[in-house]
Design a protein that fits this description.
- The protein is α/β, with parallel strands linked by helices.
- The protein folds into two domains: 65 residues; 192 residues, Vaccinia Virus protein VP39 (Rossmann fold, 3-Layer(aba) Sandwich).
- Helices cover 42% and strands 21% of the residues.
- It has twelve helices and eleven strands.
- The strands form three sheets. Strands 5-4-3-6-9-11-10 form a seven-stranded mixed sheet, with helices on both faces. A two-stranded antiparallel sheet has the order 1-2.
- The protein starts with a helix and ends with a strand.
- Bound molecules: S-adenosylmethionine.
Length: 283
């Protein structure tokens, strides 16, 4: 079997399950991961023999893709904000929308010359905390998650990216106050209502950690309200609170933050034109 035969086998076996561009993209992600070949180099190897020992591995991967398992879990890594991140079934796969939250914080604080204390709540793979630590050299970054397993991966990701982040295991819903004060508190907490499950793809529902995603329909802002109350007591003067939000709940979020006394509340749309980020101050 040649590389081309393998590529055609992918196209044939997955044709009922994914659009052709996505199948191609899977194949190139795999050749990059297992053979360190980019797209162009992969094509140049069209007539080369596909290594026998990799054939079995690729046929196992095909089975997993057929079952809709995300390619990031299959290869155990992804890219976020141009940086490599390990991911497992215990961590949410970082989404491109979340990069915009990181970008916003960097833009706001890039010029800052004083040291900045920053807290990421619900860190998962550590993608937000680590990207910010990497890009804001004067930030002292801490990150909280309830999941021991996620924190283990986040720690590995901090090492992988050569940054220092303090990781703390804590249940934010059971926390009555934060121990320190911060210039910046960021969070992308669970925000998908149970009623929205039917809009979601099987690759998310069957593989990503439930506890990272869902909230009850009757209390969808549970994480945001708890975090905002903690932030009221822990943000330094002119400190910034930034959330990734559920696109359908921007008005409720604005109301909740106004009721709690936050000011300069700004909602921003993501690359897909959906309300996705909210930022505010507490004076
Ligand atoms: C939507 S994920 C975000 C992960 C990551 N920050 C990102 O943007 O990809 C939410 C995270 O919140 C964590 N989490 C859920 N309940 C929590 C709680 N009660 N206290 C602290 N973290 C919690 C989950 O384990 C998960 O890692």
């Amino acid at each position: 079997m040649t590389f081309k035969d393998q590529r055609l086998a992918f196209a044939e076996i997955l044709k009922e399950d994914y659009p052709p561009e996505e199948i191609n993209s899977f194949f190139y992600i795999l050749t990059e991961h297992y053979f360190h070949l980019n797209r162009f180099e992969t094509h140049q190897k069209d007539d080369a023999i596909f290594p026998k020992e990799k054939e079995l591995q690729f046929s196992e991967i095909l089975k997993r893709l057929k079952e809709q398992e995300p390619i990031q879990y299959i290869i155990g890594e992804t890219e976020f904000f141009g940086l490599p991140f390990k991911v497992t079934k215990d961590t949410l796969i970082p989404r491109p929308e979340t990069e915009e939250l990181v970008e916003l914080v960097i833009t706001e604080f890039r010029e800052s010359t004083t040291s900045l204390k920053l807290l990421d709540i619900g860190t998962g793979s550590g993608c937000i905390a680590i990207s910010l630590a990497k890009n804001l050299s004067n930030a002292i970054v801490s990150a909280i998650d309830i999941s021991e397993e996620a924190l283990k991966i986040a720690k590995e990701n901090a090492q992988l990216n050569n940054v220092s982040v303090e990781f703390i295991k804590s249940d934010i819903l059971q926390t009555s106050r934060l121990e320190e004060s911060y210039d910046i508190i960021v969070s992308n907490p669970p925000y998908v209502r149970d009623l929205e499950k039917k809009l979601m793809q099987p690759n998310v529902l069957d593989f990503e950690p439930e506890g990272a995603l869902f909230v009850r329909d009757d209390n969808p802002l549970i994480f945001y309200r708890s975090i905002a109350i903690l932030a009221k007591n822990s943000l330094k003067p002119n400190g910034l609170l930034v959330f990734e939000i559920n696109e359908y709940l921007a008005l409720e979020m604005t109301q909740m933050l106004t009721d709690l006394g936050f000011t300069f509340i700004l909602t921003k749309k993501d690359i897909f034109g959906k309300d996705r980020i909210i930022q505010c101050n507490f004076k």
